[in-house]
Write a structure and sequence with these properties.
Layout: H1 3-26, E1 42-53, E2 56-64, E3 75-81, E4 88-89, E5 105-113, E6 117-125, E7 131-138, E8 149-151, E9 169-170, E10 176-177, E11 183-191, E12 194-202, E13 208-210, E14 216-218, E15 224-233, E16 249-257, E17 262-271, E18 276-279, E19 296-303, E20 308-315, H2 321-327, E21 329-330, E22 332-333, E23 337-341, E24 348-352, E25 360-371, E26 376-378, E27 386-394, E28 402-403, H3 411-417, E29 429-435, E30 443-452, E31 455-463, E32 478-482, E33 491-498, E34 501-506, E35 511-516, E36 528-533, E37 539-549
Parallel strand pairs: 1-21, 28-30
Antiparallel strand pairs: 1-2, 2-3, 3-4, 5-6, 6-7, 7-8, 9-11, 10-11, 11-12, 12-13, 12-14, 15-16, 16-17, 17-18, 19-20, 20-22, 20-23, 23-24, 25-37, 26-36, 27-33, 27-37, 29-30, 29-36, 30-31, 31-32, 33-34, 34-35
The chain binds 2,5-dideoxy-2,5-imino-D-mannitol.
Length: 565
């Protein structure tokens, strides 16, 4: 390059860069979130390597630093936090620069080795497009933020195993230490259409041996990615460190089922001697999911500070690539949730971490208000675009509930056919988020109660069909049953509402649904939040509490337009 062309190239770079910045500053950003994690700009997908180390929480994430759309050559974004609420952006932990990851640094996990030594195991796409597993350690373990990571020169430490396609072997879990003093790690793949959790063991984290049999496999389920494997107490809500195996714990195996982009999980027992996992139930399309809305590639970690297991996941957009380009970003992380085994040992329960309370202000509350057929109760005194709301309903005379058609037991289908506008007997009742004053726009999160096989069954729906006047959005309605007895229990709903996301927890966190929505009328001062009942039977709001949620400091780049508090 001549000197003149080099100067022109520099000018072009500078002008080009400022042009991008200028757009970012002047763009309206009504859909950027206030308390859900997102990077300053561009594309983000899976959370990676969540961990707590020396007083600091770390969140790494799949990032395309060059634009708001997915790219194969992923980087590891890196942010740190003291409270899991406010996050400071750091330099990328990895860029695809080495022969063993030159075509992408994709998902992986952290493990804390004895002596408090963090190590990352991640998938790299190598120069021959093979998915291989690589190790990295902090350059300076005394740096409080672990800004720089050094990749082991002997990478890859695990090559594609025999019989596995080179592009079907990815996303190592956090490793666990077995009684024999050796590490175990499991990595997702598929073999002859069976989803498999391939198991490896190692003494030193560098030399890994494949166990002949997978930890678990399911014929016909297709490729598994982003596995997670962790113990949960059989009794109590405390979390358990990943290496714990004893009769007081059960094990959860979570698999990202690629063909459906869904995170399913199983509960079962792990036998470390036989190196086998035995689940209580079989994996089917109706199996348990962490979340029945837009939610994928989740990852959990054990937080020793509050002795809990925390879960986060990638929440994709529901708008188009063109919208992502206009916004300059794409992708959120779900709000961190504590996760534990339900008392009945049949499912997990999830709940927003209590640190959200540091963002609460303007509490409003209500008790014992009857909602008759067709009533709307506006929740005033909060900021409807940034709110944490909890509401509980009590129902009486349930024997009048509709009978569920036994030929239609698919909850998502029932929710989309019987959307919030279709009157029932008990339900729909719940919340209308992001509602315009005339209700043209509304995101309805609601319940219906049916009779089925001699008992009562509670359906939870998130209905996006009227969430925006805009066309070309994915407005899929989501639904799932909530395992509670409405004769005995109140029916509770909590919703974290944040500009373009509604994260809903039914039945105290037994059923969770995330929806992405992009209102055009229900924005800024024009948005409302209502409790509603559109069933012929009245329902009693026993308790309602709502808080405005202050804006957290999340990866703030002051040059970028952010959602208003
Ligand atoms: N995303 C990563 C992969 C993972 C997939 C690539 C799941 O490692 O399997 O960005 O969303």
């Amino acid at each position: 390059m001549t000197t003149t062309s080099a100067i022109w190239f520099l000018i072009f770079l500078t002008v080009g860069f400022h042009h991008v910045r200028y757009n970012a500053i002047t763009l309206e950003q009504p859909y950027r979130t206030a308390f859900h994690f997102q990077p300053p700009q561009n594309w983000m997908n899976d959370p990676n390597g969540l961990m707590y180390y020396n007083g600091v929480y770390h969140l790494f994430y799949q990032h395309n630093p060059f634009g708001p759309l997915f790219a194969v050559q992923m980087y590891w974004g890196h942010s740190v936090s003291h409270d899991l609420i406010n996050w400071t952006p750091l330099e990328h932990a990895f860029a695809p620069t080495q022969p063993f990851d030159i075509n992408g640094c994709i998902s992986g996990s952290t493990t804390i080795l004895p002596g408090n030594k963090p190590v990352i195991l991640y998938t790299g796409i190598d120069s021959q497009n093979r998915q291989v597993q690589n190790v990295a350690v902090p350059k300076d373990p005394s740096d409080p933020y672990l800004r720089e990571w050094v990749r082991y020169t002997g990478n890859p430490v695990i090559n594609v195993p025999e019989g596995i396609q080179p592009d079907e072997f990815r996303d190592p879990t956090t490793a666990w230490l077995a009684d024999d003093g050796k590490w175990r790690v499991t990595i997702g793949g598929q073999k002859d259409k069976a989803g498999i959790a391939i198991l490896f063991r190692s003494e030193d984290f560098v030399n890994w041996t494949r166990h002949e049999e997978p930890l678990y496999e399911v014929t016909g389920s297709g490729m598994w990615e982003c596995l997670d494997f962790f113990p949960v107490h059989v009794d109590g809500t405390n979390g358990v460190d990943t290496s714990v195996t004893n009769p007081a714990v059960k094990h959860v195996l979570k698999m990202g089922v690629y063909d459906y982009a869904r995170d399913y999980y199983l509960i079962g027992d792990y036998n470390p001697v036989k190196e086998k996992y035995v689940s209580q139930d079989e994996l089917t399309l109706d199996s348990l999911r962490y979340d029945y809305g837009k939610y994928y590639a989740s990852k959990s970690f054990y937080d020793p500070v509050r002795r809990r297991r925390i879960l986060m996941a990638w929440v994709n957009e529901s708008d188009s690539d063109a919208d992502a380009i206009a916004k300059g970003w794409s992708g959120l992380q779900s709000f961190p949730r504590s996760v534990w085994l339900d008392q009945n040992q049949k499912q997990l329960v999830q709940w927003p971490i209590e640190e959200i309370e540091m963002l609460h202000e303007n509490e409003v509350s209500l008790r014992n208000e009857n909602l008759e057929d067709g009533s709307l109760h506006e929740i005033l005194g909060i900021t409807p675009l940034q709110v944490d709301v909890q509401i509980s309903f009590k129902l009486t005379n349930l024997e009048e509930a509709e009978i569920l058609d036994p030929s239609r037991l698919d909850p998502q289908l029932i929710c989309s056919e019987m959307d919030a506008s279709k009157k029932g007997i008990f339900g729909p009742f719940g919340l209308l988020a992001f509602a315009s004053h005339d209700l043209t726009e509304q995101t309805a999160i609601f319940f219906r109660v049916f009779q089925h096989n001699g008992r009562y069954i509670v359906l939870m729906c998130s209905d996006q069909s009227r969430s925006s006047t805009r066309k070309g959005l994915d407005k899929t309605t989501y639904g799932a049953f909530v395992d509670i007895d409405p004769q005995r229990d109140e029916i509770s709903l909590r919703a974290l509402i944040d500009h373009s996301i509604v994260e809903s927890f039914g039945g105290g966190g037994k059923t969770c649904i995330i929806a992405r929505v992009y209102p055009t009328l229900a924005t800024r001062d024009e948005a409302h939040l209502f409790a509603f009942n559109n069933g012929t039977k009245s329902v009693l709001i026993t308790e309602l509490s709502a808080w405005s949620v202050k804006k957290a400091r999340i990866n703030i780049d002051e040059t970028i337009g952010c959602a208003d508090a």
